[in-house]
Each structure stands twice: as structure tokens, then as C-alpha cells.
Design brief:
Length: 236
């Protein structure tokens, strides 16, 4: 059975303020994620642990959902040159999938070591038709290389999460997958993900982890509301 993971409430994360965040090429300080659980990425299927480990953390703030990827990488490489490209074909890529638990549609986001972004929304599990690129309004990425790899923070804005009528906030039901394409100058990329998948298919939505948002007050969250004035919902 897929695991359940918590998104920590991070009101002081730099992305919580509309105009905040580090300049290009500068990462969000690790202190912004102090005390937040880390989840190691694993090779899909029966493979052993990835040769270059990675981990992910999940959070949320008033602006939307947050993720932080931290990767060991001896050879950071990408030829990505713009947003809304198939970055996994071009080099190292962090991927984040978000799906309402009771819906067929789901979102797919990319971040590269140099801060390029991609957003897609698939309307069903078969990924049929053209690549469904989404506007990037509000999708934020802060990436940087480090001495032994690279890190990236992503924000998916609440209005995007609610754009198809889904509730968002403490008590809402979402699922998630974090994944990585680890490229090198030669050979095929190494794949890893959290949670571990039985096969190398990052669109296997039935195996996504359940994602719960911790209550901002520290109290047990109640059910999401359809009241647009309620912080537990942003249904238009």
C-alpha cells in the first residue's frame, strides 16, 4: 500500500511572500526546511538504491504546495534552455506529480539545476494526445548547484491547484510522487522516485503517496470546505 506523507506548514518559507524568494542561481536556505521529514528516493522496480542518492521534503504555505529536492550528483548536466520543455530528455531533472485523490486529472512539474520550469496537466491516466503544457503563472523554482550536487525548491500555487474545482488546504485529499532523472555525459539516465514504484513508470498514479497538509494551528485538521472564505478550500 502506498505510504501517507505530511506536508509541513512553512509560513516563513521565502516563497510564502508573493515577491520573495532568492535571486536566480541561489537556493532557498536549508534552514527554511528545518525539522521537516525527508524521504529518500529509491530505484523503481527491484533495483537497489540509486548510486547518487536524492531526497525530497514536502511543505505548504498560504501561497501553495512546496517541495524541496536535494541530490548528490558528481556530474550535473543539462542542455535545457527554456521553460516548458521536456527537460528529462535534456538532462538532470526533478519531477513532482500532484493528483487530487478523487479525480482523474493530475499535474506534472519539472525543475532543472538552472531553474527552468515545466508545468503540465494530464486529464486522465493514459497520457493521450499532445503534451498538455500549462501556463507557468505562479509556479516558482529556485535551483542551484552545490559542492556535491544540486538542490531545488518548487512552489505550486493554490490557484492552479484549484483551477479544476478541487479543494486545497488542510483536510483536502491529494496524492503525490517525487522523481528524478539523473543524467551523465554517457549512458542512460538513472531513475529514482518516492514512493518506490514497482515499475519505472512515473505516471502510475495508483501508487502515488497520500499527501496530508498539517494544520497551521497544530490542531487536527478538519475536512476541506467548499466555502470560498474558508482556508481549507479555494474552490472557485
Amino acid at each position: 500500500m502506498p505510504p501517507t506523507v505530511a506536508a509541513a506548514y512553512l509560513p516563513d518559507h521565502p516563497f510564502a511572500a508573493e515577491a520573495a524568494g532568492p535571486p536566480p542561481g541561489r537556493p532557498v536556505a536549508a534552514a527554511a526546511w528545518a525539522g521537516v521529514d525527508t524521504h529518500p528516493l529509491s530505484s523503481p522496480g527491484g533495483g537497489g538504491p540509486p548510486a547518487e542518492p536524492g531526497r525530497v521534503r514536502f511543505g505548504w504555505c498560504a501561497a501553495g504546495l512546496l517541495a524541496r529536492f536535494e541530490f548528490a550528483d558528481a556530474e550535473v548536466c543539462t542542455s535545457a534552455s527554456a521553460d516548458n520543455q521536456l527537460h528529462y530528455e535534456l538532462g538532470d531533472t526533478a519531477e513532482w506529480f500532484l493528483k487530487p485523490a478523487d479525480a482523474d486529472h493530475y499535474w506534472e512539474f519539472y525543475a532543472t539545476p538552472h531553474g527552468h520550469r515545466t508545468a503540465m496537466c494530464w486529464t486522465g491516466p493514459d497520457r493521450s494526445g499532445d503534451v498538455p503544457y500549462e501556463p507557468l503563472d505562479g509556479v516558482r523554482v529556485a535551483s542551484a548547484t552545490t559542492g556535491d550536487g544540486w538542490v531545488s525548491d518548487l512552489l505550486v500555487p493554490a490557484p492552479l491547484l484549484c483551477s479544476r474545482g478541487d479543494a486545497w488546504g488542510p483536510g483536502s485529499a491529494w496524492t503525490t510522487l517525487a522523481a528524478r532523472y539523473d543524467h551523465a555525459a554517457a549512458g542512460r539516465p538513472a531513475l529514482s522516485c518516492f514512493p518506490r514504484l514497482p515499475v519505472a513508470d512515473f505516471h502510475r498514479t495508483r501508487d502515488f503517496a497520500a499527501l496530508t497538509l498539517q494544520a497551521a494551528s497544530g490542531e487536527r485538521p478538519g475536512p476541506a470546505s467548499a466555502d470560498p472564505e474558508s482556508p481549507g478550500s479555494c474552490v472557485p
